[in-house]
Amino acid sequence: MTRRAVLAGSGALAIGGGLAAVLGAGGRTPVGASTTAGRRVLKAGTTSAPLIDEASQIPVWGYNGSVPGPALRLGQGEAFEVLLENALEEETTIHWHGVRVPNTMDGVPHLTQPPVEPGGRFRYAFTPEDAGTFWYHPHQRSFEQVGRGLYGPLIIEEAEPPQVDRDLVWMLDDWRLNDQGQISGGFGSRHDAMMAGRIGNTITINGKPAAPLIARPNERIRLRLVNAANARIFGLDFGELDPMVVALDGQPVEPHRLSAPLLLGPAMRADLIVDFDYPAGTRHSLRDVFYDGLEYELTTFECQGKEVRERRLPDPAPLPPNPVAEPELATAERHRIIFGGGMMGMMGRTASGSDARNEQRTGSGMMMERMGGSGMMSGGMMGWTVNGVSASGHVHDPIISAARGTTLLLDMTNETAWWHPIHLHGHSFRVLSRDGQPTRYQEWQDTVLMAPEERVEIAFVADNPGDWMFHCHILEHQAAGMMATIRVN
Ligand code: C2O
Ligand code: CU
């Protein structure tokens, strides 16, 4: 399949599946004894998954033979232990994305632990302080390991969870399949790295094609969305369904309705409360409208059967807050962070920056074709940078070294023509402002999506000692230099 065909294919995504897949598309993945504390094993290895339809078994990488890996559910404050077994032919680790773990449990090869050799094991143990929707994935060659399917949900339950009829996790992903229906090679290509990252042509929810979500009238569903894609940004338009957002990146937020599509960059999560106050027989479409010209229906929500209750439940109360230290802005230490690099510098000769912006929203690669193919990629190629440095490996001189307990205020500017979901390990931060305007909810996040040329201020108390990765979660951008380290002493 030519690249053109792959790209064209991304307009007509492989969305299908029948009723048989309905429950599977959203149900709790049963995990043996998942609610009791104790030791679990996650074995990273090769397996297969029905990415296109129930009959398709496509070679992938997964934990315990499945994509996503087992849904790990445990209680807030409950001790947690996982033994990672590496059945891959390369080194790996597990990173517990968004969880404020001790540094030695963070899963960053060479920085916080030695990578786990093929055939090797590593024991992770920690007690999560925060309830919420998190996920796990390798931090070793993650552009390929995550891209081939190594990821899974980690759900930390509130002591008193909000009352819902069902609690569903949807791990969104996209895959780049070739015309044999196999995962295309070329992971980490310079072409993907310098543009929008590896955008795929086949979307899955929980490792399968999306199937309709069937609900009963007046049913209340907690829908936990996780974007596990390497590079794809989702812009989710729920239309009339109008859910309430109650948490972002696992952290409670003042419950609110969406006033625009929900933007979910790679690694970001959102917890929604969806009330189906519609009669049986109604159908609502969930559309992904992020990439201009490539909008598509991701799935549908359908009301069927007998009503669960006579009328819809009242709006949900806020989730109980997590014990995250409040930043002290008056005494904060302010740091400027500049993200740079990518295609824009070169673009000056051939196209404007705004063309590059549009290119990211119309899918990776078309600009390349228009500009004459890969020939132009030689020469002026540059990496992505944080404060002028394009990093390699996982061990760097820290860009910030803070005394424990300091409030850090990062004043970040995206000087590139591309979107970047910027992730900090070991902490959650408040998003204070965007382009000088205070954010409405001052939301806590661990990954903040920055638009081209956008300026975003975040703040957090640097209270977790260690060296922490700070990087773009478009995994190809990270690999091509868009990462740094923040040290908390
Ligand atoms: Cu989800 Cu540094 O990663
Ligand atoms: Cu990026």
Automatic annotation (TrEMBL):
<feature type="domain" description="Plastocyanin-like">
    <location>
        <begin position="167"/>
        <end position="279"/>
    </location>
</feature>
<dbReference type="Pfam" id="PF07731">
    <property type="entry name" value="Cu-oxidase_2"/>
</dbReference>
<keyword id="KW-0479">Metal-binding</keyword>
<dbReference type="Pfam" id="PF07732">
    <property type="entry name" value="Cu-oxidase_3"/>
</dbReference>
<dbReference type="GO" id="GO:0005507">
    <property type="term" value="F:copper ion binding"/>
</dbReference>
<dbReference type="InterPro" id="IPR045087">
    <property type="entry name" value="Cu-oxidase_fam"/>
</dbReference>
<dbReference type="InterPro" id="IPR001117">
    <property type="entry name" value="Cu-oxidase_2nd"/>
</dbReference>
<dbReference type="InterPro" id="IPR011706">
    <property type="entry name" value="Cu-oxidase_C"/>
</dbReference>
<dbReference type="InterPro" id="IPR002355">
    <property type="entry name" value="Cu_oxidase_Cu_BS"/>
</dbReference>
<dbReference type="InterPro" id="IPR011707">
    <property type="entry name" value="Cu-oxidase-like_N"/>
</dbReference>
<dbReference type="GO" id="GO:0016491">
    <property type="term" value="F:oxidoreductase activity"/>
</dbReference>
<dbReference type="InterPro" id="IPR033138">
    <property type="entry name" value="Cu_oxidase_CS"/>
</dbReference>
<feature type="domain" description="Plastocyanin-like">
    <location>
        <begin position="379"/>
        <end position="488"/>
    </location>
</feature>
<dbReference type="InterPro" id="IPR008972">
    <property type="entry name" value="Cupredoxin"/>
</dbReference>
<dbReference type="Pfam" id="PF00394">
    <property type="entry name" value="Cu-oxidase"/>
</dbReference>
<keyword id="KW-0560">Oxidoreductase</keyword>
<protein>
    <submittedName>
        <fullName>Multicopper oxidase family protein</fullName>
    </submittedName>
</protein>
<feature type="domain" description="Plastocyanin-like">
    <location>
        <begin position="55"/>
        <end position="159"/>
    </location>
</feature>
